[in-house]
Amino acid sequence: MRIAILAHVRQRIAQPFAGGMESHCWYLAAGLQDRGHDVVLFASGDSDPRFLIDPVLAEHYERTFPWAEHRGSAPLIAHLDAGYAAACDRIAAGGFDVVHNNSLHRFPLEQRRTAMAPTVTSLHVPPYDALYWFVAASPAPRHRLTVTSSRQLAAWWPQGAPPEISVLHNGIDVARWPFTSRGYGSAMWCGRITPNKGPHFAAAAARRAGMALTLFGAIEDPDYWRAEVEPLLGGGIAYGGHLDGEALAAELGRASLFVFTPCWDEPFGLVAAEAMACGLPVAAFDMGAAREVIGEAGVFAPAGDVPALADAMRAAIEIPRDVPRDRVMRLFTRDRWLDRCESLYREVARDPDAAVAA
């Protein structure tokens, strides 16, 4: 199939990934290419050159509108609207069999556009006002939507979802997250360093549990880093930088525990699945889809409760490493995920009435 993947353009679709959305889009493009599809990635022009890039913007907008400036910015909104309007026009004229929309922008959701190019939209966030009403009006015979968890489905459609909506769990390439049979007693946290990811809670709980912890990830919010995270470093708590996938997998293989601290309604938690693939049990805040993803491979604490999280760390480290790995192999592999993506593409690209019935 000829497939257009429309990406979010806040960050590059390239390693080291800024977060789960960038990782999801990269692995989607790479996986579909590996399966022989003709893929064009509509993303920022500074994304990974291994893909055929049709740039929505010349460069990712975090570079043009840094973190402290872009929230609610009218110039940024105009910048994005112009980029996505032109990209959607090029997709409509490009002879694509299907569009996989990961953009979180309103234009690709419009029924006049999905009528021209069969579309699968993956939602990676909880509902928010700027997008909610466009999503609600978008289901159509040639437009299917997915969410990453049952928890996210209930958040978007509390009264029940229409037939065009389904849960599509994320999948990971387990070959890139190799299992190791033992760690060396330390804990690990990784993700975007921002308040809604809660790394300061992980550091405080590790100190209370008497366990060494290393934090990895991009420092997205420098003010938060300086005020809440950096003062906790030292005495076994360290920052290991922002690593690419291969280096991060090696660090996970040496650790004995993963700490997952969402402070928002986390739709999935890709980093937890990656850690589990390497054999790490998880101590987690019970937020969003954490239980749905981690299940028997972890121990849970109420969000924001540092003493309870420290207790969860002590308990979770005793879970055998084959338990998290087996859960990933059953539920969250790349092949399982890509099989489902291809099935959705076939459904939405064939006869519209049949697609809705399916």
From TrEMBL:
- Does the record carry Amino-acid biosynthesis as a key word? no
**Pfam families, alphabetized:** Glyco_trans_1_4, Glyco_transf_4
The transmembrane segments are none
Q: Which UniProt keywords apply?
A: Transferase
Q: Where is the Glycosyltransferase subfamily 4-like N-terminal domain?
A: 19-176
Q: Which InterPro entries match?
A: Glyco_trans_4-like_N
Q: Which GO terms describe its molecular function?
A: glycosyltransferase activity
Database matches in PANTHER family: BLL5217 PROTEIN, GLYCOSYLTRANSFERASE
The name this protein carries in UniProt is: Glycosyltransferase family 4 protein
Higher taxonomy: Bacteria, Pseudomonadati, Pseudomonadota, Alphaproteobacteria, Sphingomonadales
